[in-house]
Amino acid sequence: MTTTAQDFILVDRQPPIATITINRPRQRNAINYDMWSKLADLVEDLDRAREVRVVIFTGAGETAFSAGADIADFDRYRADSAKGKVYNDAVDRLLDTLATMDTPTISMIRGFAAGGGCELAVATDLRIAAEGSRLGIPAARLGISIGHREMRGLVSLVGKGNALYILLSGRLLETEEALRIGLVNQVTAPEDLETVTYQLATEIAGLAPLSHAANKRTLNQVQAKPALDNLTVEEANVPLAQFDTRDYQEGYRAFLEKRAPNFIGE
């Protein structure tokens, strides 16, 4: 029986939260070439779904979030620079989608998050890890390097020095060190990982989705144009546009009336 990328990726929609599970536990949830494109398709679809307000990524089983790119792909897709470009384009599409999507994303990490698995986690907005997990990008052990998008995301998250420490050492960091350098946002006991992650997702989903989207866009603009002196009119107006939304009026009234707001994304 032939298996496809769809067999290796599970999607559970429980609005307002959707969960994407990398489902190859026997391969430590390694991601093959077709899966990168499938993940990008799924993320784009979920970002268009108004009822989905948070997307959680995780890996099946207890061993790994994802051990990274599937080594079985290397002969076919990464044997030389020409083949490598085709492979990297598929990875870049997912990373670009994660970077620009309006919907908040969380990586729920249990076990190994290595190589491409770590890069996927870095590309999401937040990372919650169970104690005992290990994270890193040991590309130098294979004689390869990471792409520009992966490098940009890693440096933005942990800074130049820590990014080089991760890459030059090739180490997989324990959760305590990963938390210290900012590679993860929170570390929990393994038995509490799902509770903590879904509680955070529920809190995020209950807040204004347009505010989340505007904050993510503004963050991207600040990183792309740190001097802020060459913003377009449209970019400069992103924070101000929130005052013209129904959600702002609802949030303001709810605050005055001392009740929970009901945001609708308009």
From TrEMBL:
Similarity-based family: Belongs to the enoyl-CoA hydratase/isomerase family.
EC code: 4.2.1.17
MF-aspect GO terms: enoyl-CoA hydratase activity
InterPro entries documented for this protein: ClpP/crotonase-like_dom_sf, Enoyl-CoA_hyd/isom_CS, Enoyl-CoA_hydra/iso, Enoyl-CoA_hydra_C
Protein name: enoyl-CoA hydratase
Organism: Geodia barretti
Matching SUPFAM superfamilies: ClpP/crotonase (SSF52096)
Taxonomy, superkingdom: Eukaryota
Gene Ontology process terms (BP): fatty acid beta-oxidation
Keywords, ordered alphabetically: Lyase
One Pfam match: ECH_1
Keyword RNA-binding in record: no
